[in-house]
Design brief:
heterodimer, A: alpha/beta, Rossmann fold, 2 domains, two-stranded antiparallel sheet, 9 strands, 41% helix, B: alpha/beta, five-stranded parallel sheet, flat
């Protein structure tokens, strides 16, 4: 049990997001230390969602920066639209002498210059070039940068809560990691999964949910699968089941709407072969092996 | 005890520096751990460990350092003091136990906070307030069907439990070579250069030229940045390599999946490279290519990766006519061929699937390791190997 400390914003989870004690500790630690929080975990475990709910829980506005393989660190600060200025200079549109007109702040720049404290989500930082995180070190440390073209300095009045997610596609540089508070979202155990499902699909029939979860964890346990289904796919699957009015018996004997769970052809084929060979689907938790004994 | 954790982690090879340590100390001073061992476990892991691959090491060290600290730092110091001398819970009668209502967790939490506010002095026994040996839902050593623990033995998974379960064992990278990890490691295998057709707009130069041109737009193009790494892979097949079929085939799959290599060639050999290498894993005569041809076709910029267990009879490596295959007799000993490869190519590494511990006990492994830098065929080893291939050259 943590002592509520009045001087800090405290995140306690929200109605729409079930967070374990260790996650809450890590989030609050990052907020208090004013360090970026680095979240890693399997795809579909709710990394991006967490940022949105931290913002909601703390009642702060959120700015997201979705990283692509072509993203550059400088883009997050500001972009100097040279082409536009060149064009204006050539064709005489607008006041070309004012450089400021062609400086557009990026997500980082907007968050720094905002009057209130923001949550900044840097999503999938590992998508970018390996050097990308290193280029942001100073900006994230000092929360300030200079616009070279004008000499203006952008300083964060209120240090934003920075949440960074990574899918582990690339190793992040040590110097960057040093500055972060780290959290790894594990794949939820069945009990936690029940609570997560409950948030998205309240009033779901308990026996149906049980059947769904048995099938889901069974599928995840199959080593032949190339891509294991994740939480978000489970939620989609349940939504599909509910909408079509599938009964518990049908889920018990078949796997309807497999396409929401298995996303590659090889996986669907592998399951098909298994079924053709007379492979049985599990019906009870005990069919899944000792780790799921209830 | 805390420093023991720090140095314990460093001894386990977890990269913890003073910066992370100061971060943890700051968090503790702020009371982020909520004065509980569980909270301390969460906060210290978040601050000190920056990759799930080290969670297992962290758990081991944490369990070692804090074993026996199962009872814990409680909510406030006073409360801790009350609870520091646990009284044996007296046996509750069945009626009493039944009388204790089943409380939901939220309800319990609210009552706990209320009770904490009302409580002004220590007490033992009784039905409502926090203390030891009572049957209120709060406190420890007590009996209540849905109690909240305040210090003492826990019903829920405690930090020690989590640490001792070593939940994160599977995330260790020094053991397995999974495909994804391999691909990620190989992504570093690149050197970007600008070569070829100029077809990318160079904005800076365009502006410069346009200015020099008095505002008349002058477009300047430059070649795109491309990976300039050429890779030659030589693999030992058969015999002692058979048990390592899986990691080696994953490496091969990953290399084929690594788009962006400028050029990639793979050849096979058995035990040691002699006068020929083979383009087919069955080492058929028809697929033989003279090793000397490789030197002519591939220049020194090619990077060489040899994969093999390097364990063979010393005769196979050191002697003339050493090839284990009696049909192939060649005068030049294998070690000379290996040396020629190392001399011809600028950078080369040897990946060994045998556990690193066994290397010093094998003569041929030691000999080969003196020719090529040798790395373990694991994600960690592969990363180091890639660094040795494209990274900054170490000063000898």
């Amino acid at each position: 049990m943590s002592t509520p400390n009045g001087s800090f914003h405290q995140f306690q989870g929200t109605k729409g997001y079930i967070a374990g004690a260790s996650l809450i500790d890590a989030v609050n630690c990052a907020i208090a230390l004013e360090r970026p929080l680095l979240i890693k975990g399997e795809p579909g475990t709710g990394k991006t969602l967490l940022a949105r709910h931290v913002a909601e829980g703390l009642a702060m506005p959120m700015e997201s920066w979705h990283i692509k393989s072509t993203s550059k660190a400088a883009d997050g600060l500001y972009v100097y639209d040279t082409i536009q200025r060149l064009n204006d200079a050539r064709f005489g549109d607008g006041d070309v002498r004012d450089v400021r007109r062609y400086i557009k702040l990026g997500p980082l720049g907007r968050v720094f210059s905002a009057a209130e404290r923001n949550v900044l989500l840097i999503d999938e930082v590992d998508k970018a070039d390996v050097e990308f995180p290193n280029d942001l070190l100073r900006e994230l440390d000092e929360m300030r940068f200079t616009v070279l073209e004008t000499g203006d300095e952008v300083v964060a009045a209120k240090r934003p809560v920075v949440i960074i997610t990574s899918n582990n596609e690339k190793e992040l540089p040590d110097a960057f990691l040093r500055r972060c508070v780290f959290y790894f979202i594990e794949f939820p155990e069945p009990d936690l999964m029940r609570r997560i499902v409950d948030v998205h699909h309240p009033n779901l029939d308990a026996t149906l949910l049980d059947q769904v979860l048995i099938k889901f964890y069974w599928l995840r346990g199959q080593s032949e699968l190339r891509k294991k289904p994740s939480t978000s796919e489970l939620i989609d699957w349940i939504a599909a089941l509910l909408r079509s009015g599938v009964t518990q018996q049908q889920v018990e004997q078949h796997l309807p709407f497999l396409g929401t769970l298995l996303k590659t052809e090889q996986d669907t084929d592998a399951l098909g072969r298994y079924r053709e060979a007379g492979g049985a689907l599990p019906r009870k938790w005990s069919d899944l092996g000792p780790q799921y004994q209830q | 005890m805390f420093l023991e954790l720090f140095y314990g982690l460093r001894d386990e090879g977890v990269p913890v520096a003073i910066q992370e340590w100061m971060m943890l100390v700051r968090a503790l001073v702020m009371g982020q751990h909520g004065s509980s061992l569980d909270g301390f476990y969460h906060v210290s892991r978040a601050c000190l460990v920056k990759s799930e691959t080290y969670f297992d090491a962290f758990d081991r060290v944490f369990a070692r350092v804090f074993r026996g600290v199962e009872g814990e730092l409680s909510v406030t110091d006073e409360l801790l003091e009350w609870l520091s001398d646990p009284k044996n819970a007296r046996e509750l009668s069945d009626e009493q136990r039944a009388a204790l209502e089943e409380l939901s967790r939220d309800e319990l939490l609210r009552r706990y906070l209320e009770t904490l506010e009302r409580q002004t002095e220590r007490h033992d026994g009784g039905g409502r307030w926090i203390g030891t040996g009572g049957h209120s839902p709060f406190g420890h050593g007590g009996e209540h069907p849905t109690g909240i623990r305040v210090g003492g033995e826990g019903r829920r998974r405690s930090a020690m439990k989590v640490a001792e379960e070593r939940h994160f064992r599977d995330y260790r990278t020094d053991e397995a070579l999974d495909l994804r990890g391999t691909v990620v490691a190989l992504k570093r295998l690149r050197q970007l250069t600008r070569q070829g057709r100029p077809d990318e707009l160079d904005v800076d130069e365009t502006i410069g030229e346009t200015c020099r041109n008095a505002g008349e737009i002058e477009l300047v193009f430059r070649p795109e940045r491309k990976n300039n790494v050429r890779l030659l892979l030589l693999m030992d097949v058969g015999g002692s390599m058979d048990p390592y079929y899986q990691p080696v085939s994953r490496l091969l799959t990953a290399l084929h999946a690594t788009r962006g290599l400028r050029d990639f060639r793979a050849f096979y050999f058995h035990n040691c490279v002699y006068e020929s290498v083979y383009s087919d894993a069955r080492l058929l005569r028809g697929s033989a290519i003279p090793t000397g041809d490789l030197f002519r076709q591939l220049d020194e910029r090619w990077k060489v990766v040899l994969v093999g267990d390097a364990a063979m009879h010393p005769h196979e490596l050191m002697s003339a006519f050493g090839n284990i295959d009696p049909r192939k007799e060649a005068e030049t000993p294998g070690v000379t061929w290996l040396q020629r490869i190392a001399d011809h190519f600028d950078r080369g590494v040897w990946l060994n699937p045998d556990p690193e511990k066994s290397w010093p006990h094998t003569r041929t492994t030691k000999a080969i390791a003196s020719i090529f830098p040798m790395f373990h065929l694991s994600v960690d080893g592969l990363e180091k190997a890639v660094a040795a291939l494209v990274g900054a050259r170490k000063v000898a």
